[in-house]
Amino acid sequence: MAMGKDPKVDDFENRIAMWFKRMGIELEVPALVAFSGGPDSTALLAALAALGAGPLRAVYVDHGIRPRPEREAEVRLVAANAGRLAVPLEVRALAEGLVAAHAGDKGIGIEAAARAFRHEALRSAAEAFGAERIYIGHTRDDDLEGLLMRFLRGSGSAGLRGLRAVDGIVARPLLDVGRAEVSAYLRARNLEASLDSTNSDDQILRNRVRRRLVPLLDVDFPGWRGGVARAAERLALDDEALASLAAEDAFEKSDDGSRRIEFERFDSLPKGLRFRALASAIDDFADEGACSEFPGGRVPARMLNEIIACVADGISFSGHGLWIRREGPYLKMGPSLDFEGDDGYFVVLNESDIGLEGSVAAGAVVISWTEYPDTAGIPEGSFDFPLIVRTRRPGDFIALSAGSKAIDRIFGSWGLAAGFRNKVPVVQDRRGILAVLGSRAPRGKDVFRTVNSGAATRRLLSLRLKGA
């Protein structure tokens, strides 16, 4: 690593390098950097580039929330900084009003809705780029503010353990670094960062915590940061112990795609472990896209309490795209069709539904096995069962050869009216959107996920509309 002219530069970059060594993470792997243009992500991108990480790609998501002139100026600054750091930049823009509409539909805050779209954009960009890591610039201050927010909202140990330094392919190299150190590094590198006007909006809980609560704690309880950090560390240990116990009494996956557990065993568990068993099974369905997602990614305690009360009385529970009921000696859970909206639909298909050489219809969609070059299709091995045929959702992306593209943008290029967009079937597997079947729409066509051209198979999965 080249020595910087200012010791603050070398100190900051050495801390990041030591973080990678401590975590046992390789620097030189394909990776994305979530690049908002703000101080934290700018410092992270600059440090990673200086350390020779990557190959890197910076991904900027325009949520369409702030005034257009502010967003356009930020994109120019983001592009200039990425160019100066010699890191390729990918810009993803959401339609104005899309995040606010999603927040209203789901009954969640703007910040949570924007985060959901941003995470989906990063996941799809990582898949298209072949990234092994997604780096996010969360700092120590972000973590502490998040802990305060979740405490005030009544979170349990899973929410109060704090952010994970490494969570799957997501890594947070700045988690031991404070904002003051970030600012000093940017000044030393002579790097300009964007200032988000929404950070001064006190309607957002995080801003109220940062601007009102934290200064009060700093004055009256100056040691609060260390105390909260120590509590989070202890809660993380408790959470790991509980997770290990809960794994012994988890729902098992059935051949029909549902989950089940012996009811007597479930009913004998302490309530905390019953909570975890239910939440884990529900999370599995949410990860597969087979049920509604929850704000913050956490199943509400009131819903878990309602489920436990229902099944104890032998009553079936139905909601959020799931049914949960007792069947014989088992407590079973599976996806239901109780989705919002008159046009909404949702069907789960397992490989056994199609058979080795047969076909199956899911509404207007016919899915069958075929062989190249008889017809177009998705090569075997490039997707996973179960498949889900559903209505499109705001923020959906599909990976194409030229990069990921928002499905709403595809619909826009066809000139498809908003009222008809829920009638175009979307096919999904656990990796994301597999196909958009628009051949019946005016000016529309079927769009398939781009897969590795080197996939050596003659067997294809054909996805088509009846009559198309």
Task: Describe, in plain words, how this protein is organized in 3D.
The chain has helices at 7-23, 39-50, 68-84, 98-106, 110-129, 140-152, 157-160, 179-189, 205-220, 224-247, 263-268, 271-287, 301-312, 351-354, 407-414; strands at residues 31-34, 56-62, 89-93, 133-135, 166-167, 170-171, 252-253, 259-262, 317-319, 322-327, 330-335, 346-349, 359-362, 365-371, 378-379, 387-390, 397-400, 403-406, 426-429, 432-437, 446-448, 459-465. By secondary structure, it is α+β, with helices and mostly antiparallel strands. It folds into three domains: 7-137 and 173-200, HUPs (Rossmann fold); 252-335, no CATH class; 346-465, no CATH class. A hairpin with a 2-residue loop joins strand 5 and strand 6 (170-171). It starts with 6 loop residues before the first helix and ends with a strand.
Give a quick set of tags describing it.
468 residues; alpha+beta; six-stranded mixed β-sheet
Q: Briefly, what is this?
A:
The protein is of the alpha+beta class and 468 residues long. The chain is built from 15 helices and 22 strands.
Map the helices and strands.
Elements lengths: L6 H17 L7 E4 L4 H12 L5 E7 L5 H17 L4 E5 L4 H9 L3 H20 L3 E3 L4 H13 L4 H4 L5 E2 L2 E2 L7 H11 L15 H16 L3 H24 L4 E2 L5 E4 H6 L2 H17 L13 H12 L4 E3 L2 E6 L2 E6 L10 E4 L1 H4 L4 E4 L2 E7 L6 E2 L7 E4 L6 E4 L2 E4 H8 L11 E4 L2 E6 L8 E3 L10 E7 L3
Helix pairs in contact: 2-8, 4-5, 6-9, 10-12, 12-13
